[in-house]
Amino acid sequence: MTYTHPRLIKRPIGRILVDAGLLNDDKLKEALEEQHRTNKLLGEILIAMGAVDRRELDIALSLQSDLADRGKAIRLAAGIRNMLGELFVLAGRITTEQLDGALAQQKRTGEKIGQLLVRLGLTTQAEIDAALDIQKVQAKGADLPTPLRLGELLVSAGHINRPQLEAALIRQKESGRKIGEILVEGGHVDQKAVGWAVRLQGMLLRAVLCAALSLTATAPVPEAEAGTVFSGKIQINAIVLAHAHVNVLSQPQEIVVTDADVQRGYVQVAAASTVEVKNNSPAGCLLSIAAYDLPFRKTTVSVMGRDIALGSNGGLVTLPILGKSVITLSFRFDLASETAPGTYAWPFMLSASPM
Question: Does domain 244-354 have CATH number 2.60.40?
């Protein structure tokens, strides 16, 4: 007899993108076939196909590990407040018309909306339990932090920086106005970027809800009754958790900007960082480049033959690495008109996570 302990399986990024409506099933199928032929990372294939936006893919990837854990998925979903019925509409489990019909019946019968949805065959009790858990977490406080908040999405995409968001949040508490309006009024972001973030917020929330409603509490591992003797082979399945780590072998402590650099308009630092990346996930890993107080107009990192523009708070880079590999990162800093010659502290911190 074999007993297998439950393991945490990462929710496929393709499924997340489809749940969010950022990708359709036909494009996903085409990309998976390409991945089977080439063994490339799915995200890179989708970008090459023009099927997804890199910023939106990177943000979805940053949520991926949380969507495999019921508690974390529920906490993510709880950061955006919704009524129970609205949660099921957003998750695509029921239509608006079905919810309106259930609410009309609720007025006549007095039943709880969750009980009604189950009785009408529109959902299951397990999904209702998950939705109720989301609402319990919501009840603990309206200021529950979540990367799905509008301001956090704008920071992740590099449209605003952390100090700008924190200042806007203070103004929001004082005025009660929407965070997007405050950021636009302050000249930190335009209405187009806010509209993009609002759209992405709704789409990602749908993907998070789909994950949260599909995950059930882990069942306990069966135990043998006293005196039971097992015959035959006992198979023990080892669980190897996905893990990635980056070790910085060499990296500058500072950036020197000369008069010639100012006249040229940029500083090029070739092979600036040499790092050792270890990763045991066949899907590759995600390199996080966190930036602090960038004094430049624009920064581009070159790694493994790709040039990637970083936001004011850094960015994420997908790496097709399995096992151990040493890579180098080069940087180009485009100087702002007010950037003066001088010595600046190195602004980047690196970390890695499995995909």
Answer: yes
